[in-house]
Amino acid sequence: MFRWNECSNTMMPDVVIEPMRADDLGSVQALLRAASLPVDGLDDHVSTALVARRGANLVGSVALEVYEDGALLRSLAVAKRERGFGWGMALAEAIIDLARRRGVRKVYLLTETAATFFPKLGFRAVTRAEVPSGVRRSVEFTTVCPGSAAVQVLELSTAKKNPGGYRGS
Ligand SMILES: CC(C)(COP(=O)(O)OP(=O)(O)OC[C@H]1O[C@@H](n2cnc3c(N)ncnc32)[C@H](O)[C@@H]1OP(=O)(O)O)[C@@H](O)C(=O)NCCC(=O)NCCS
Fold first, then answer.
1. Half-sphere CA count of 19, side-chain side, radius 13 A
2. pTM for this structure?
3. Nearest CA to 45 among 27, 18, 25, 17?
4. pLDDT tens-digit profile of 120-143?
5. 45 vs 165, higher pLDDT
6. Nearest protein CA to atom 5 of ligand 1, as residue
7. For ligand 1, atom 8, which residue shows the shortest CA distance?
8. Domain annotation for the chain: domains and CATH numbers
């Protein structure tokens, strides 16, 4: 797959979204730290995390923590130089697609920096009290995200289907 590079008028290899590998963990944690996002607990969810990469370069990341009563979307980040090209939306759509294929009915998230980004995908604000207990036991809810962070939920039956090309497991 190739994407037109308007700056140089050349074709450049496009970004691929694919499952995160164990050896991506260090570079994903560096990306998250650069974006001021927490890294705690991510190592427990590598099997439900995705990365966007162009060749050997990491463009972005996103992860899903799956609990018995819902899932938590976390660690959505795009490298600063790559922002504004749609990779954040593509990663979010891909992880929602993964959640749907895992049978998740409701995806929750906490955000301090992108509260107006997620409603474009169908997320809506909820109170912490509305979050089921399993999801609330996650590290993000219990320790790393301040009480001021916005809480949002996406009910997958009403979510926009992933129109993109990601078809990973
Ligand atoms: C949020 C983030 C992942 C978006 O990545 P991106 O690749 O720049 O986003 P896209 O290019 O797909 O943008 C899609 C739309 O969201 C908007 N958007 C981008 N970042 C946004 C933000 N932080 N808040 C609200 N809207 C945002 C864009 O303007 C664009 O809007 P449009 O469709 O009306 O033009 C990226 O800015 C980032 O890594 N931020 C730091 C980490 C962070 O805040 N993560 C989310 C916390 S859970």
1. 10
2. 0.89
3. 25
4. 999 999 999 999 999 999 999 898
5. 45
6. 88
7. 83
8. 2-158 (3.40.630.30)
